[in-house]
Amino acid sequence: MTGRLDGRVIAVTGGAGGIGQGIARAIVEAGGRAGLIDLDGNRVEKAAQTLDPSGETVIGLAADVTDRASMDAALGALRDRFGRFDGLVNNAGIVRLGPATEMKPADFDAEYAVNVKGVLVAAQAAAALMAGKGGAIVNVASNAGKVGYPNMAGYNASKAAVINLTRSLSLEWAADRINVNAVCPGGVATDMLGAVADFISEKSGTDRNELFGSMVPAQLGRHIEPVEVGRVIAFLLGDAAQIIRGQAITIDGGDTPY
């Protein structure tokens, strides 16, 4: 059936967070199985158990996306658990908020380490398992990588880098039948968006809850739910998306014009 992931096994980094769990839900909805990967082992195991207490379709694994040996071990464990490995969603990401004039080099380095290096390292580990067999990788960038936002210079730049890295990997790995794309969400109801609301509220004196409630795509009129992002990603992981390659697809309810 078009758009299905029946039997396929997909790793999702940043799996303990809201979008990661939404991605896993969508993968399971499409008939696949998911391995949630996160630096916090206890938290990711709890997230997996919440989604599937039986462990038959979702498991949690601790790993550091910036460390190749750690990712090799996690993806190998996922393959051994379910008997195959078919794809990766690079969802792990961090943000450091503040004016560009006050940005600490250490914060900039941390964002690039997780948001860009982590994408490359995890993708390399996944590609090693899929080379010659085929599979798919979806990188979670952001509409911030296309339009940018105040007080997020490092995050904006790192997500722009993910968009370009996606194009590079798509070109280089096509011969191994590995399809690589990116999605660029915006306005998703997550803890990260809540942290942005907290920051702006503190600086401006605006009511935090009212501010968070206003941070929605204007055309959509509501927050995007993590599972909605997941459903787009699940489609890109499947056979029906074979003609979509190296793209950075905006899924922000119409806010970003390209």
Automatic annotation (TrEMBL):
Gene3D superfamilies: NAD(P)-binding Rossmann-like Domain (3.40.50.720)
Domain Ketoreductase: 8-181
InterPro entries the record matches: KR_dom, NAD(P)-bd_dom_sf, Sc_DH/Rdtase_CS, SDR_fam
A molecular-function term among this protein's GO annotations: oxidoreductase activity, acting on the CH-OH group of donors, NAD or NADP as acceptor
Keywords: Oxidoreductase
Superkingdom in the source lineage: Bacteria
Family of the protein in this entry: Belongs to the short-chain dehydrogenases/reductases (SDR) family.
Name of the protein described by the UniProt record: SDR family oxidoreductase
Species: Roseitalea porphyridii
